[in-house]
User: What shape does this take?
Amino acid sequence: MHKVKGNIILEDPLPNTTHISDLVFYQGPLVTLKESGGEKYVWVWVDVNDVCNRWGVFKTTDEKVSGWREKEFVFDFISEAVEEGPVYFFNTDLDGNFVAAWDASLEELIEY
Assistant: This one.
Protein backbone atom coordinates (compact mmCIF):
# COMPACT_ATOMS: atom_id res chain seq x y z
CA MET A 1 0.00 0.00 0.00
CA HIS A 2 1.08 3.58 -0.59
CA LYS A 3 2.36 5.59 2.35
CA VAL A 4 -0.24 8.10 3.55
CA LYS A 5 1.01 11.62 4.37
CA GLY A 6 -1.51 12.51 7.08
CA ASN A 7 -1.38 11.92 10.81
CA ILE A 8 -2.32 8.43 11.97
CA ILE A 9 -5.51 8.12 14.04
CA LEU A 10 -5.71 5.02 16.24
CA GLU A 11 -9.30 5.52 17.43
CA ASP A 12 -12.09 5.32 14.89
CA PRO A 13 -12.97 8.94 13.99
CA LEU A 14 -16.35 7.78 12.66
CA PRO A 15 -17.65 5.40 15.36
CA ASN A 16 -20.97 3.62 15.04
CA THR A 17 -20.92 3.86 11.26
CA THR A 18 -23.94 2.31 9.57
CA HIS A 19 -24.04 1.04 6.02
CA ILE A 20 -26.62 2.76 3.80
CA SER A 21 -25.89 1.30 0.37
CA ASP A 22 -23.22 0.11 -2.03
CA LEU A 23 -23.13 2.63 -4.87
CA VAL A 24 -20.68 0.69 -7.04
CA PHE A 25 -20.17 -3.05 -6.62
CA TYR A 26 -17.88 -5.34 -8.62
CA GLN A 27 -16.76 -8.52 -6.86
CA GLY A 28 -17.18 -6.48 -3.67
CA PRO A 29 -18.09 -2.91 -2.76
CA LEU A 30 -16.01 -0.22 -4.49
CA VAL A 31 -18.02 2.87 -3.52
CA THR A 32 -20.22 2.74 -0.43
CA LEU A 33 -22.45 5.26 1.31
CA LYS A 34 -22.39 5.15 5.14
CA GLU A 35 -23.65 7.31 7.99
CA SER A 36 -21.98 8.33 11.25
CA GLY A 37 -23.22 10.89 13.76
CA GLY A 38 -26.03 12.02 11.45
CA GLU A 39 -23.58 12.81 8.61
CA LYS A 40 -23.17 10.87 5.38
CA TYR A 41 -19.81 9.67 4.11
CA VAL A 42 -18.69 8.08 0.87
CA TRP A 43 -16.16 5.26 1.24
CA VAL A 44 -14.10 4.65 -1.92
CA TRP A 45 -12.01 1.47 -2.01
CA VAL A 46 -8.46 2.44 -3.01
CA ASP A 47 -6.03 -0.35 -2.02
CA VAL A 48 -5.59 -3.77 -0.43
CA ASN A 49 -2.85 -5.98 0.99
CA ASP A 50 -2.87 -9.40 2.68
CA VAL A 51 -4.53 -8.11 5.86
CA CYS A 52 -6.30 -4.78 5.14
CA ASN A 53 -8.48 -2.88 2.73
CA ARG A 54 -7.84 0.85 2.40
CA TRP A 55 -10.70 3.27 1.85
CA GLY A 56 -10.75 6.97 1.02
CA VAL A 57 -13.56 8.50 3.09
CA PHE A 58 -15.19 11.91 2.75
CA LYS A 59 -18.30 13.72 3.95
CA THR A 60 -21.11 14.20 1.43
CA THR A 61 -24.81 14.98 1.02
CA ASP A 62 -27.62 13.17 -0.80
CA GLU A 63 -27.63 15.91 -3.46
CA LYS A 64 -23.89 15.61 -4.09
CA VAL A 65 -24.07 11.80 -4.31
CA SER A 66 -26.98 12.10 -6.73
CA GLY A 67 -24.98 14.48 -8.94
CA TRP A 68 -21.99 12.12 -8.92
CA ARG A 69 -24.32 9.17 -9.70
CA GLU A 70 -25.52 11.05 -12.81
CA LYS A 71 -21.86 11.08 -13.92
CA GLU A 72 -21.68 7.30 -13.30
CA PHE A 73 -19.34 7.72 -10.31
CA VAL A 74 -16.43 8.56 -12.61
CA PHE A 75 -13.46 9.30 -10.33
CA ASP A 76 -12.62 12.46 -12.32
CA PHE A 77 -15.74 14.06 -10.80
CA ILE A 78 -15.17 12.92 -7.20
CA SER A 79 -14.51 16.46 -5.97
CA GLU A 80 -18.09 17.37 -6.88
CA ALA A 81 -19.34 14.77 -4.37
CA VAL A 82 -17.34 16.13 -1.41
CA GLU A 83 -19.04 18.21 1.25
CA GLU A 84 -16.91 20.56 3.34
CA GLY A 85 -15.42 18.44 6.09
CA PRO A 86 -12.78 15.86 6.87
CA VAL A 87 -11.16 13.49 4.40
CA TYR A 88 -9.66 10.27 5.73
CA PHE A 89 -7.94 7.10 4.67
CA PHE A 90 -9.24 4.12 6.65
CA ASN A 91 -7.64 0.70 6.91
CA THR A 92 -10.12 -2.04 7.75
CA ASP A 93 -9.33 -5.70 8.29
CA LEU A 94 -10.73 -8.18 5.82
CA ASP A 95 -13.90 -8.44 7.94
CA GLY A 96 -14.44 -4.67 7.73
CA ASN A 97 -13.32 -3.81 11.28
CA PHE A 98 -11.43 -0.58 11.97
CA VAL A 99 -7.62 -0.90 12.11
CA ALA A 100 -6.32 2.68 11.68
CA ALA A 101 -7.11 5.94 9.93
CA TRP A 102 -5.19 8.95 8.67
CA ASP A 103 -6.37 12.49 8.15
CA ALA A 104 -5.89 13.44 4.53
CA SER A 105 -6.65 16.04 1.91
CA LEU A 106 -8.91 15.69 -1.08
CA GLU A 107 -5.86 16.16 -3.31
CA GLU A 108 -4.13 13.20 -1.68
CA LEU A 109 -7.23 11.05 -2.18
CA ILE A 110 -7.43 12.02 -5.85
CA GLU A 111 -3.71 11.35 -6.38
CA TYR A 112 -3.80 8.00 -4.55
Notes: The chain has a mean pLDDT of 94.
